Amino acid sequence: MLRHPGTALFIALSGLLPAISHAQQAPDFSKIKSSRLGEDLYTLEGQGGTISVLIGPESVLLVDAQFAPLADKLHAAIRKLSDQPIRYLINTHVHGDHTGGNENFAKLGATPHFTKHDVLALGDDYRSVGYPLVDLNNGGSLKGLLEGHRGQAHG
């Protein structure tokens, strides 16, 4: 019989600490991977949401800006693709891995745009495993998800 059952639990859980601390390491902001999707369309991957880069005849449009610490590396990667100014920045949603670099890109001349409509992000609705994500913290609802699925979100 254990005199202090909590002691056994503490010992068992302390064996997990190295694995937990390893899993919670700081994000790696050192690498940016560029992929060409089309003639003037690219993606940039760093440590957050994937950025889409559309190069127009007079400027560059970005979809999302990832984390703020990546802004300089992202800007350098975009400069390898085009010397056009970055004028437009569209955010798919408000999470920091998509909007963290907004301020830095705004200083470079980009104008961040947020949609004011109920937008269905298909990546959240159509998942290969599990249930769809309904982002209740940012105004999502099951009703909105179902209406969007039926194509009636704005009708």
Automatic annotation (TrEMBL):
Its cofactor is Zn(2+). One of its GO terms (biological process) is response to antibiotic. This is beta-lactamase. PANTHER family: ACYL-COENZYME A THIOESTERASE MBLAC2, METALLO-BETA-LACTAMASE DOMAIN-CONTAINING. It is found in: Periplasm. Monomer. It comes from Aquabacterium soli. Its EC number is 3.5.2.6. Residues 52-124 form the Metallo-beta-lactamase domain. The lineage of its organism: Bacteria, Pseudomonadati, Pseudomonadota, Betaproteobacteria, Burkholderiales. It comes from the Bacteria. GO terms for cellular component: periplasmic space. It holds the Pfam family Lactamase_B. Keywords: Antibiotic resistance, Hydrolase, Metal-binding, Periplasm, Signal, Zinc.
